[in-house]
Amino acid sequence: MVRATQVHKSFGRLDVLRGIDLVVNPGEVLCLIGPSGSGKSTFLRCINHLEKIDGGELAVDGELVGYRRSGDRLYELKDREVCGKRAEIGMVFQRFNLFPHMSVLDNVMAGPVRVKRESSSTARDRAVRLLERVGLADKVKSYPNQLSGGQQQRVAIARALAMEPKLMLFDEPTSALDPELVGDVLDVMRGLAEEGMTMIVVTHEMGFAREVGDTLVFMDGGVVVESGDPRAVLTAPQHERTKSFLSKVL
Amino acid sequence: MTDPTVRPSPGGGEGDGGRSNMKIVPVRHPGRWVASAVILVLAAMLINTMFFSHVTRGGVREGRYQWGVVGKYLFAAPIFRGIVVTLELTVIAMVVGIVFGIVLAVMRLSPNWLLSGSAWIYIWFFRGTPVLVQIIFWYEGISYLYPHLGFGIPFATPFVNVNANVLVTSFTAGALGLSFNEGAYMAEIVRAGIISVDEGQTEAAQSLGMAKFQTMRRIVLPQAMRVIIPPTGNETISMLKTTSLVYAIALADLFTAATNISNTNYEVVPLLLVASLWYLFFTSLLTVGQYYVERYYARGSTRALPPTPIQRIRQSFFHVRIKPVPAMADAPWLAPHE
Ligand SMILES: Nc1ncnc2c1ncn2[C@@H]1O[C@H](COP(=O)(O)OP(=O)(O)O)[C@@H](O)[C@H]1O
Ligand SMILES: [Mg+2]
Asked: What is the pTM assigned to this prediction?
């Protein structure tokens, strides 16, 4: 589903990604861990076309991110094509980023109605179903600031799912939550994983990574240091940097 | 009722040593009493001179403020025609100003330097010259500099030629002058509003696949409104009065109409009062309107909106308990109100 080969990205003189190699197969849940500033968010943003990569190759579902290959040339994608690609990838942010001026229902309907031009009745039916699924059927008419952080994040997940994405990106979805609210969000994500959604999850929840993740990737300094079966990486890390990072967070 | 200054303390546990039975003497504010007395005396003097005193002008003893003359002209036909012109100019200038402002603000925030640069120059020019000069310039300068306006392919012979004097009447000159100037101010107001919206909003909208225009129209601008509305209300109130500058190009707005009348009957001050009373009436209307528009755009930013003044009055007169309105149900046209 995602194939990264020597992906490079720099901001000015700061090299943030220095050759990322990784593969995510369809239906796989890949958990991404690493110290702050190691480039995890930047990598997710590259996958979702929110940043342009400077080198290497990044492909989602067999298609290059940001470019179209034709013969031996790469054509930069037009804005409209980029929007189409983003619509197929769901993204959940650390700080939820719900639209505060819209009700919960409108937040979840916004993508399908505005981007896919779905009729509002179709979009509403799906939105209500998704909100039921994340346990917020009674909150459809609320506004985001009337919800707890955990509820907001579950709305954000429903909003992303409303676009029926083929890949979901989670950027520290539980880091801004009070500890007692983390469980509800992780439950929703676990349910998604069980249904076979392809997911890349940046997280510090090692329990989640161990139970739900198919692969655990440890990133540091813009490169993948170590990856493998989560249980193996967590219990017997091979690299010094992984060891010292895990000793700090576990 | 008992003496309101003497209330039993709300407490009354054992710990406060029986204080609940003692009188509480509030702090006195003698300074406030003196100041209030001074203000009341001054107000009484002013009201006396306004309505109950007379003066002798040119050998004739007459009411100081000439309210009779004011009343005679307050609803005169030329004044009404002037009001229409003033309101038309205000609406046109604000509508064009807001549209220009949004376009210029988006241009200024564009990464393309030609777009942001030209917006910057526009704002620099129209904010940097007096609006009075701009109005006169539209009226006099255009036909002086470009007596024939041609429409067609750039640098080729134009298809249509228009005499600029025909195109630029005093009304169009006034409207153009006020609009272009307002555009520059609105651009800065809108820009401040756009910048105030968290970048995460744009990111979330884009990650759903929304295009740039949609993101701006559906996500950023509605949230920017909360920051944009209050200064825009000020601009509108200010514009209503600034329209009087079209006096300089002899366009018969409210102020010019009043002046035209006093030029023939020499009742200068009463007619200034007529104009002022109308300006005050419309600025008051705008102030009320602004209050409700602000409340509307506060949706989602406060959990519960405070009651409106009308609700407050109902509350205190009829002792109706009005539940704090959840922010979303505020606009009565969005949600039914019990
Ligand atoms: N838009 C940007 N401009 C400049 N520097 C950036 C930008 N985004 C991220 N960075 C820098 O890139 C580095 C990696 O950031 P990030 O990907 O957010 O790390 P992580 O999510 O792993 O904590 C940080 O040093 C950060 O300051
Ligand atoms: Mg991050």
From this structure: 0.81
